[in-house]
Task: inverse folding
């Protein structure tokens, strides 16, 4: 029997990057999946590839209504919800506070935190009753920036530290019905985009000159991760049978930052 046979999962930010790798791994493990994302083209391709086991919704994680619609779509299509995976996030192109213009600071903060923190809260809130009914679980994508400085700029690093706090508080609040955990990827070869307005030079993460080499050299394992390198950890945390006593925990998948 596959690890997630007959399980149903709602994933935000699942059309590309780490989220897409998690979707594909969950499907391989027998789950049905609903994906909320803004990328209509990639959602359509995903739906076409997996017509029976995937449902998609083009929407914004910063909207509670869109998250609630995704949950309703999930329940209508599959009859239950066992896991919510919050994954959608935007970067800040390593912008330090000194480079953020005072007149843009509040707007940049709001844009990034609305996606990286409020987006997770919306997904959790919308999923709550269905997850209580299934005695399910929540998995949030953190980052090594949730524990160490320098992996992003002041806004991104602060937002990911907030996600760590969110995991701990939700694990406390939602026990014993719902387990809440996180996965903390390190530098990964994805096209993660930066929030608008923080830098005129902003570009997708893996387009930055020297990114792959510098990221690999910074960790003991000496390589940059593929998106799929992290996916098995989400499966582990989504399985109430394989991790029944794990809550309030973040699993690091970052090439050994903690050892360094």
Result:
């Amino acid at each position: 029997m596959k690890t997630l046979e007959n399980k149903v999962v709602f994933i935000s930010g699942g059309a590309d990057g780490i989220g897409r790798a998690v979707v594909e791994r969950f499907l391989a493990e027998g789950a049905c999946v609903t994906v909320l994302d803004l990328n209509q083209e990639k959602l359509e391709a995903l739906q076409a590839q997996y017509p029976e086991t995937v449902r998609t919704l083009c929407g914004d994680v910063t909207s509670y209504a869109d998250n609630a619609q995704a949950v309703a779509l999930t329940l209508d299509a599959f009859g239950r919800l066992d896991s919510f995976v919050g994954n959608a996030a935007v970067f800040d192109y390593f912008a330090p506070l000194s480079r953020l213009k005072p007149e843009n600071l509040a707007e940049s903060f709001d844009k990034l935190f609305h996606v990286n923190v409020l987006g997770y809260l919306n997904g959790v809130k919308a999923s709550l009753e269905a997850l209580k009914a299934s005695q399910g679980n929540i998995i949030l994508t953190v980052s090594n920036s949730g524990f160490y400085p320098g992996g992003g700029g002041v806004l991104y690093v602060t937002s990911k530290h907030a996600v760590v706090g969110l995991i701990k508080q939700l694990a406390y609040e939602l026990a014993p019905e719902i387990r809440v955990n996180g996965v903390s990827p390190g530098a990964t070869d994805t096209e993660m985009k930066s929030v608008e307005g923080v830098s005129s030079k902003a570009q997708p993460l893996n387009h930055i000159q020297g990114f792959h080499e510098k990221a690999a050299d910074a960790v003991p394992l000496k390589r940059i991760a593929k998106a799929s390198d992290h996916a098995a950890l989400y499966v582990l945390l989504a399985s109430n049978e394989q991790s029944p006593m794990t809550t309030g925990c973040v699993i690091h998948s970052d090439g050994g930052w903690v050892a360094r």
Summary: Helices lie at 17-28, 40-49, 64-78, 102-134, 154-174, 211-217, 231-238. The chain has seven helices and seven strands.
